[in-house]
Amino acid sequence: MTEQEAVPARPLPVSARAPGKCILFGEHAVVRGSPELVLAVDLHTQVVVSPADALRLNGEPADPDRNPYLGPAVAAAGAESRFDVRAVSRLPRAAGLGSSAAFVAALSTALGAAGGGIARPALAQRCFEIERAAQGVGSPGDTTTSVAGGYVTLNAGPASGPLLWTVGAGSERWEVRRAVDPGWDWVVAYSGIRRSTAEAVRAVSARLERPDGPALLEQFASVARAGIVAVTSGDREEVGRQLSRNHALLREVGVSHPRLEALIEAALPAALGAKLTGAGRGGSIVALPRPGREVELVRRLARAGAVPFPVGPASGAELVEPPRSA
Length: 326
Ligand code: PMV
Hints:
This protein is of the alpha+beta class and 326 residues long.
């Protein structure tokens, strides 16, 4: 399935999966409209949706405190709220790897299919609205990447690739483009520290209200632009430099953490560059291995106490065969 293809109609039970994501450049600043580059990673959330007499998640009655996305996703699909949803994920939660976006995208893909099919731009918009309603703040970067797959830019202009769609809320709009795949493997590493995206976004937002905020925002945009040019032109060394510059800015706005600094230090001998990825304050880092040193990089991160995942691009949210037992 490619980004141009709509999700086709499918009767229940229906199963879908959607990838997590890793932000390579531009998190936080993207909330204010700056450019971002995101990679959909081959760690998925899969759901199976079956008819039921009430709304259930993994056999339990739906509980908005435990999963604030389920009810709104069902409502957004215009469906009667009587489904049994089974979800499994390889993505650690609250780790900066887009687990909530992957859940929303997988579930909305399955419900969209059960509701007669859905075009991909409409699916991306729907997923953004569901996540935004639950989190109160944020950009469409995570949900749109989970829907689109591969390398995706937001607000990076026509040179970054062909337009996929625009996504928005009120007067805010983000332009989403397909960036070329340089064919590299990346390594993400989870620190084990869970944190709230919404709290980190609010803290950075307050930081950017200070007098030097506009200058900082311009630096975020300039790093993201340079990083996107470097990735799309396949300039590994330059990407490494821009990753480290982006991390320095994230540290400056207060979203690094001593554990993340230690992981980056452990990674750097085997990496061209590394940065925190996602909201920060814990969560994960991403590093670009030096050519031929990926295994060493993974070992270094594991020795430093993280959970490393070698990742490459994944295709976007898609229907899959339900397991035979569904
Ligand atoms: O940590 P995550 O996976 O929730 O990513 C958050 C990315 C931010 O730019 C900080 C917020 C956003 O919605 O874009």
